[in-house]
């Protein structure tokens, strides 16, 4: 197993777009931000071994996170089974955090994404390359 061949791509993992609140009938119930796959190639979602987020230094509970990609919604616990769901390099995933209140408009938050992922085309001789990517950015709520 080798690691950290794509570290220069980590800075792009959390997108620069603002955080947006998600509401139903005028009531905020979640907020969302975008992430980008941190290499120059896409991958199957099953290659993501670990994915978590922190907002303002607090880890977001996995059960509060929805991963939106390709017009579909997944729980983080489902990613390891998604062998046919491809994350294309030109597509950003939307991360929705259900907290039943959203975030205050205009406020700025520190968003951290952490991902450990296998590089699928490196599986020669039975071992895959594994990349650990971390990115932290300040984002404002739109």
Which radius of gyration do the C-alpha atoms yield? 15 Å
Number of discrete helical segments: 0
- The rough form would be described as globular
> Would you list the SSEs in sequence order as H and E?
EEEEEEEEEEE
Please outline the major beta sheet: 5 strands, antiparallel
Give, in spatial order, the strands making up the sheet with the most strands: 1-2-9-6-7
Strand tally is 11
CATH architecture: Sandwich
> Whole-Å distance between the termini?
41 Å
CATH topology: Immunoglobulin-like
Q: Beta-strand level of the residues, as a percent range?
A: over 45%
List the uncertain runs.
Answer: none
Level-1 CATH class name: Mainly Beta
Number of domains: 1
Overall pLDDT level: 92
Helix content: under 10%
> From the helix content, strand content and strand pairing, which structural class follows?
mainly beta
Give a written overview of the molecule.
The protein has 142 residues and is mainly β. It has one domain: Immunoglobulin-like (Sandwich). It is 0% helix and 49% strand. It has no helices and eleven strands. A hairpin with a 2-residue loop joins β1 (20-24) and β2.
Question: Keyphrases for this structure?
Answer:
single chain, 142 residues, mainly beta, Immunoglobulin-like
